[in-house]
Amino acid sequence: MIDTPPDAEDRRQIAPVICYPNETLPDFGVAGLRAQADDMPSVAKVTVPPRDAATFDVPAGGVFRISCPDGSQVGDLNLWNAHDLSERFFSGKTRALHGTHVTTGCALWSNLPFLRPMAVVIDDSLEWYGQDAFGGRVHDVIGTRCDPYTHHLLNGQDYHYCCHSNLTRALADARGLRLADAEPHIHDVLNVFMCTGFSRDTGQYFMKASPARSGDQITFFAQIDLLGALSACPGGDCSTTHSSDVATCHPLLVEVFAPARPVPPVPLNGYDRSHGR
């Protein structure tokens, strides 16, 4: 057994320091982006079936809205540069810059070496939820995605409709790829409508019933040409379980709006990539 040092409490009381102060991040001008969105026509509607996934395309300067048309349902979102799948959503850096959950005014950032905003949240009907008594919040960038490998590890079963598999099939179909070629492009997600946090005693990742109801939505302004993939999680509202056929599941709806004229993408990160050489 390890002895507790005499200054243990002093060490615990040291104040934390924010790793990435975000006051110097770009001001995305959410009000202005909303005004632009109001003038855009709807150009596509994609229904994501329960326990399955679907893809959608959004032009730079366009908007996409994810909603619950028929009842509470969690979705797992992947985003890529529509012209280069190697640039994709980076949940870890998004978490480091904005926190464990995103809402209005937060950006979804792309991976290194690109590191630019892919989309900005301009409206969130669940922004009112805030943080509950358990530490739960909505729209998390801390969970990975339910996947068949972890399911097999924990349960010894092959389940083919985890979000990872759903997203793999959807990307393969959208780009004409073999499953084996599509799968490496699937990445950690934005868990749309999912209510999560960390338990205070063990620090374990928890989920609880999503507060989303029919009509709830989250809306994004695209900063570059995007290919998106959204899985309607087999956990439904994630109140009891996921990666199974037990939970009640509902479809999700993605609606895309496009600007009247083409809009250039935001530039890549300005770092010169010399890495000291």
Rg computed from alpha carbons, rounded to a whole number of angstroms: 20 Å
Element-level helix/strand string: HHEEEEEHEEEHHHEEEEE
Shape: globular
Q: Note the gap between the termini.
A: 48 Å
- Roughly what percent helix? 10-25%
Strands, total number? 13
Mean pLDDT: 96
Q: The biggest beta sheet, please?
A: 7 strands, antiparallel
**Tally of discrete structural domains:** 1
* Helical run tally: 6
Low-pLDDT windows of residues:
none
Residues in β-strands, percent: 25-35%
Polypeptide structure, described:
By secondary structure, the protein is an alpha+beta fold. It has one domain (43-257). 17% of the residues lie in helices and 28% in strands. It has helices at residues 8-12, 30-38, 91-98, 148-155, 163-175, 179-182, and strands spanning 42-48, 53-58, 63-67, 75-81, 84-88, 107-109, 117-124, 137-140, 190-198, 205-208, 217-222, 226-232, 252-257. Strands 2, 4, 5, 8, 9, 10 and 12 form a seven-stranded antiparallel β-sheet that branches. It is globular and about 65 Å long. The model has no long low-confidence stretch (mean pLDDT 96).
In short:
17% of the residues lie in helices and 28% in strands. It is α+β, with helices and mostly antiparallel strands.
Write the layout of secondary structure elements.
Blueprint: H1 8-12, H2 30-38, E1 42-48, E2 53-58, E3 63-67, E4 75-81, E5 84-88, H3 91-98, E6 107-109, E7 117-124, E8 137-140, H4 148-155, H5 163-175, H6 179-182, E9 190-198, E10 205-208, E11 217-222, E12 226-232, E13 252-257
Antiparallel strand pairs: 1-13, 2-12, 3-11, 3-13, 4-5, 4-9, 4-12, 6-7, 7-11, 8-9, 9-10
